[in-house]
Specification:
The complex is a heterodimer of chains A (411) and B (286).
Chain A lengths: L2 H10 L34 E2 L5 E2 L1 E5 L26 H13 L5 E5 L6 H19 L4 E5 L6 H10 L2 E3 L7 H7 L5 H19 L16 E7 L6 H15 L3 E6 L17 H16 L4 H4 L13 H8 L6 E2 L5 H4 L7 H10 L7 H6 L4 H4 L3 E2 L14 H5 L9 H4 L1
Parallel strand pairs in A: 3-4, 4-5, 5-6, 6-7, 7-8, 9-10
Antiparallel strand pairs in A: 1-2
Chain B lengths: L1 E5 L5 H13 L7 E5 L3 H5 L30 H10 L7 H12 L12 H23 L3 E5 L2 E7 L7 H11 L4 E5 L3 E5 L4 E5 L13 H11 L7 H7 L14 H17 L18
Helix pairs in contact in B: 3-5
Classes of the chains: A alpha/beta (411), B alpha/beta (286).
Chain lengths: 411, 286
């Protein structure tokens, strides 16, 4: 089989992994070596596909042959998709030749399980080793780890990788055992726990002041599939809060289940609206950067996030007694809860109001989304008055439903 | 009216020296005219491409002038000035001087992100930062062979004067490669040891083909999931103005056009029994 054909099959096999991040790792460059590559703090997206996803890394599977039969997965053993397998050298060469042309930040390598979890993991780690040791490659490497692989192999993976990930796949143990019978939720969490220990240890200096060996400086991440089962958003967010807390994940990715070639009849035919995925990310952000607890974000009996409104606005409407917030007096934690006010603008307000009172014009020039904020804030030259308690307010703040993509206009 | 001649578009040294002198002499912003006029000497020395460095910006420890008057420069101003000077707006030198002038009189001015002048500096710095980021992302090299060595050539059209400022990024990443990045105004060439700036060029100088570009196009085509179209999200981060220099962009129209039918076909296809013999997987015993 030709390289091009393998690339097509093994990119097709990898595209359902949402993550393509090249951020969060240490900063490196190649100035003192004969190799190639560097990393930046925030990562670089080298391209975007029409699905809106960033293309930062060469995201491929080493092979899409797989022994497992996870029903949501395009590569499950019972699927009839075409199969291929890269050699280690092919992946190394492909990564380097893409990197030299500035197409990518590095490699995100995953694999179907062949022979055994250990055998598969060994192959994946070997690609990273050859890149690092034989080519002095200093770009980004993300390795998908296989939870059942031995701890020694995970340790080796962490030596070469910038980020490791283990997909939790589904938010509940029941869903996992019904949709991914060979996967073991307990083993996944045990592996995450092991990774966390090693990642934490690599950051602490020992009592002798020595630096411990490098281990996945970009931390670990995971992915949850949304909409393949009946789990509600509340359960998903609680699962995320637990993952962030217990294993200190850098990111939980939410991937709206989408139709795949040769799908299993067990799966729902209808994929969830993409906006659900978007709302989960917004809620995730509220938990990580805005001081929200997972139980505050969803209070309704339905257990679902509103689709027609961002979760912060939805929260504010249910807690109108807390508003209006006085922009010039409220503490930081309260400012962070104002709809439309982001972390950066909160910083700017805090800094500016030490010099003089912040007025409406200031917010406009800071490019804050003023219309969304006005019902909830108080300034020397603005008070929402009755608008805050108006029964029509929720209707006003609804986002107009996304129009069906107008391809004619776009092209 | 006083006229200040700067040596090149990003002449931070020239701006700083003039600004310091003018502030201490009490010359008001509306009495200064700033313009760029390269001297023959500076062209000969290649100075027109000099990078603004950390040292070339006034700092808070500036020595007091003869009459004991000290220049007030905050760290925020220095950081913004370093970015703003790379902006293509022709009034940037005057704007920076006006803000520096106001800083001498208005305490805490740089904290007021809602002030019109300060907001404009932030917006300009942001535009420059975005231009730099997009250049790191969207430069595409093509490989060719020059005198028996592979050389990587790219054409890019930055909006602002960022070429020199972006050079360290490409050097640190591709130190052992020979590469050249050309743009309409200026080009740069790295030979593995030293960086050389070149006069601006034309995109026609790029090699016609590249051995790996077809593979990259295959990858782009296949990493795309036709069942989710988010065109706005794509265009927000990869605006159309960059497309003509991105080889993969030629696929976008076709991928969008086919997406609906491909998704429909996936949904309508009846489930199929596995064509291979399936051996059940046995988890290893603990």
């Amino acid at each position: 089989m030709q390289l091009k054909q393998k690339l097509e099959i093994l990119a097709d096999a990898a595209k359902y992994d949402a993550s393509c991040a090249s951020s969060g790792t240490e900063q490196r460059n190649s100035r003192d070596g004969n190799g190639i590559g560097s990393t930046t703090g925030m990562g670089i997206c080298h391209s975007y596909a029409p699905d809106g996803r960033c293309i930062s890394l060469l995201k491929i599977l080493l092979t899409n042959f797989c022994l497992y039969d996870c029903v949501y997965c395009v590569n499950r053993v019972t699927s009839n998709v075409p199969r291929a397998r890269f050699s280690i050298d092919e992946v190394v060469e492909l990564t380097l030749s893409f990197y030299r042309r500035n197409y990518i930040e590095g490699l995100f390598l995953s694999s179907g399980i062949i022979q055994s979890p250990d055998y598969t993991m060994e192959q994946v780690v070997e690609v990273a080793r050859v890149l690092r040791e034989e080519h002095d490659f200093r770009g980004y490497i993300h390795l998908k780890t296989i939870p059942d692989a031995s701890p020694e192999l995970l340790a080796r993976a962490g030596r070469y990788a910038d980020r490791l990930s283990i997909n939790i796949e589904l938010p509940t143990a029941a869903s996992l055992s019904s949709l991914a019978p060979e996967k073991d939720g307990v083993a996944i969490r045990v592996s995450m726990g092991r990774l966390r220990e090693r990642i934490d240890a690599s950051k602490d200096k020992t009592h002798t002041g020595k630096r411990p060996p490098r281990f996945s400086p970009g931390g670990q991440s995971t992915q949850m599939i949304v909409g393949a089962d009946a789990t509600d958003d509340r359960t998903i967010l609680n699962a995320s809060a637990d993952l962030y807390g217990q294993y200190r994940l850098r990111r939980v990715y939410y991937s709206a289940f989408s139709p795949i070639p040769d799908a299993s009849p067990v799966l729902p035919l209808q994929s969830p609206p993409l906006v659900r995925e978007h709302r989960l990310y917004q809620a995730d952000w509220l938990m990580r950067f805005y001081g929200f607890e997972s139980h505050e974000i969803i209070t309704g009996e339905q257990g679902m996030l509103a689709l027609d409104m961002d979760p912060k606005t939805a929260w504010a409407l249910q807690n109108r007694a807390m508003f209006p917030v006085d922009i010039n007096r409220a503490p930081k934690a309260t400012l962070l809860r104002v709809p439309g006010l982001g972390v950066r603008n909160v910083q700017r307000i805090l800094s500016a109001r030490r010099v003089r009172a912040v007025r409406l014009d200031d917010l406009v020039r800071m490019r804050a989304p003023i219309n969304r904020m006005l019902p909830f804030i108080q300034l020397p030259d603005h008070h929402p008055g009755a608008t805050l308690d108006a029964t029509s307010l929720p209707a006003q703040l609804k986002e107009t439903p996304a129009m069906p993509q107008q391809l004619g206009l776009f092209l | 009216m006083e006229t200040v001649y700067l040596h090149h578009e990003t002449d931070m040294d020239g701006w700083r020296d003039a600004a310091r002198r003018l502030i201490l002499a009490g010359v008001a912003p509306y009495d200064v005219h700033w313009c760029v006029r390269p001297t023959e000497e500076s062209i000969a020395q290649g100075e027109i491409f000099a990078m603004p460095s950390a040292e070339s910006v006034p700092d808070t420890q500036a020595p007091p002038a003869k009459d004991g008057q000290q220049l007030m420069v905050s760290k925020q101003f220095v950081e913004l000035a370093r970015m703003v000077i790379l902006h293509c707006a022709t009034d940037r030198f005057g704007l920076l001087y006006r803000v520096l002038w106001r800083c001498q009189r208005e305490r805490g001015l740089m904290r007021l992100t809602g002030d019109a002048d300060v907001a404009r500096l932030h917006a300009m710095a942001k535009a420059v930062g975005r231009d730099k980021h997009k250049m790191k992302a969207f430069v595409r090299f093509r490989e060719t062979v020059v005198e028996g060595r592979p050389r990587y050539l790219a054409w890019f059209e930055p909006e602002h004067h960022i070429m020199a400022a972006i050079a360290p990024f490409f050097i640190g990443r591709f130190i052992s490669m020979d590469w050249t990045i050309m743009s309409p105004r200026i080009g740069m060439h790295w030979d593995g040891k030293a960086l050389q700036f070149l006069p601006g060029g034309m995109p026609e100088a790029l090699p016609e083909e590249d051995a790996s570009e077809a593979l990259w196009l295959s990858y782009y085509r296949h990493i795309f999931n036709p069942a989710r179209l988010k065109l706005k999200a794509m265009q927000k981060e990869m605006p159309k103005k960059y497309w003509h220099n991105l080889p993969e962009a030629e696929l976008i129209e076709e991928l969008i056009a086919e997406a609906g039918a491909r998704t429909q076909a996936m949904l309508e296809r009846p489930p199929e029994a596995p064509r291979r013999k399936i051996v059940g997987y046995k988890r290893k015993p603990d």
